[in-house]
Amino acid sequence: MGGLRKLGSVAIEVVWQLGFIARFFWLILVYSGQSFTRLNLTIRELYFSGVLSLLIILVSGLFVGLVLGLQGYEILQRYGSSDSMGTMVALSLLRELGPVVAGLLFASRAGSAVTAEIGLMKVTEQLKAMDMMAVSPIARVVAPRFWGGVISMPLLAAMFSTMGIFGGWLIGVVFIGIDDGAFWSQMQAAVDFRYDVLNGVIKSCAFGVAVSLIAVFQGYDCVPTAEGVSRAITRTVVSSALAILALDFVMTSFMFRGL
Q1: CB-based burial of residue 16 (10 Å sphere; 0-12 exposed, 13-18 middle, 19+ buried)?
Q2: Among candidates 222, 224, 243, 245, which has minimal Cα distance to 233?
Q3: Phi/psi at 52 (nearest 5 deg)?
Q4: 121-131 pLDDT, tens digit each
Q5: Nearest-5° Cα angle at 142, 137 to 145
Q6: Which of 84, 138, 143, 200 has a CA positioned 20 to 30 A from the CA of residue 114?
């Protein structure tokens, strides 16, 4: 009986959290107009979430491309022509690895930083002070950070994929000696804009919405103590990673099941 009661309380807590997140997301959309009237706030958050994440995105994308190039060359040497290595690298990055890995890195770097920033503002009662001055913290603090993350994520994913393809080219053409023309021509012939490039962009946009919403919500909802902020940051990274992987599975099942 005690176990059933505990299970029921957990279910109620989950439903309450989902409802609170949905209401929070609706408030962000409602106050986004006020946020965009202060365009400098959104631009500043674009710099914070996007530009400051560039280094880890570009370096990680390059190394992922190098690894894919090495693995692709070995696999294709066993089962086919190595000229198709560019196709293998591009499809892996554009469809899956680019949006997913970039999303995980974005959550670890930018998402955790946003949660910490909003959480510290709550600890120091800056959010409460805004309420007392009739300034909405959703419009002034939350919405610019949310949209900064949403806009930054697809751009970072595109840069990640670009650097990954460059890494694959570096391994295949420069170090292994695959023909440069064959590398690019095979890739261009195989990559479809609708099923590969556009679907990857849609995924990265969905990941950006999920990670940004989780990050601002966890910071806004955290317990106003040092331990509470620390737990909120951990929840942001873990929840974002699980949300990205779950969304990737669901979206992939719909996008590519007809191929």
Answers
A1: exposed
A2: 222
A3: -70, -10
A4: 988 888 888 88
A5: 145
A6: 200
